[in-house]
Amino acid sequence: MIKSSYKSERGVQISLSVCKKMFVTLCFALALFGYTEAKYKSTLGKIDRSTWPYKINSASEFDFASAMEMLVFAQEINRAEQITNVDSLKSYLRLKSVKRESVDNYITFVKKRLVQNFRHIKIDKEQQRVVLGTVNNWSNLLDEANNLEQKLPASMIAWYNQARQFYASYVYEQFRLAALFPRITSEILTLDNTEINGSRFDDKQFLLTFDDGPTVNGGNTDKLISLLKQNGKTGLFFVLGNNLKTRLDKSGTNNVNNLYRDMLVGSHSRVHKAHPRYKNWRQALDYTDSLINSALNRECVYFRPPYGQRNTAIINHLKKDNTQVMLWNIDSQDWNSKIKSAEVSDRVLTLMLVWRKGILLFHDIHSKSRFTLPKLWKDLEGSGVIWMDDIY
Ligand SMILES: [Zn+2]
Predict the structure, then answer these.
(1) Euclidean distance between the first and final Cα of the chain, in Å?
(2) 369 CA to centre of ligand 1 in angstroms
(3) Domain that holds residue 155
(4) Of 53, 131, 161, 364, which has the fewest CB atoms closer than 10 Å, so is most exposed?
């Protein structure tokens, strides 16, 4: 049941945007839906990192790769920002209605963040394959972005062509989420300043999070946690109350406590439903909170809304229990059948280089993270990336 709901994680949002049309002109709308979904899926951001000709295993190499990714991202943000006409924006995003203000908020957020990120860039002479000017503001950054192509050595052209495509898709993904916000909330923007999305972490701090578990005894959650422990890493597991209850009933309290020892646990509510439209959300939140308290003997301090969808009533209800909403900023897309494990790893590494800190979203009910993470850890050895074992 959960698996099938996940197949349409973003599809749910697409179907919502066209559902009114489906009632009015069913045939037309079905055709449109098919077209929209197919186009959307085909534009999911993927990149082949084998085109990047250097390693990332030092702070300087990380910064060089990071600067290059940010500049291509900036090019695409700038291109999409030029779509100022609302009808053109609707057509670009294939949406019936767009919230321009949210798109603008997102653009402002990205610009500020990229300029901040650039202040951390320190590239040694040996890694200066592209000489960059000083970046103090968005205008400086955009100048660097616009001049990038002509400065690139031949060895970086294959990567550049991949990166252009990746950021075109990624900016489309992100603008689409922003344009739907807050009619359909998601990780794209915060609703309240208590929400955590990793933007207050220090440079190069990353938190691994895993949603929707636990699986049955010996299943993927167990295998994933073994892998994390073997590698001295910690994950924050957002458990679904119903899955936790099933596991407790079948395997017992000791088994579940052993499973999550040295790991962090948060709530993903009781059921995987979009809570703003779910009438029993209060009971669902309280159920999982109590279960984590009683069975795992821990305070539940973080809540991850299913699909990232929440509203202020939900946030305020959580505040009474000292629970904060935790979103994410690096979506691995590991639930998506359209993306293979190697592609998940390449996508996540690229987004880590761009954002330079934050919260990675994976799902422990799927196996892709087990194949993605060892490669990611190895690729980033020596880079200075900090895999967080708690939230400070
Ligand atoms: Zn989920």
Answers:
(1) 35
(2) 15
(3) 49-180
(4) 131
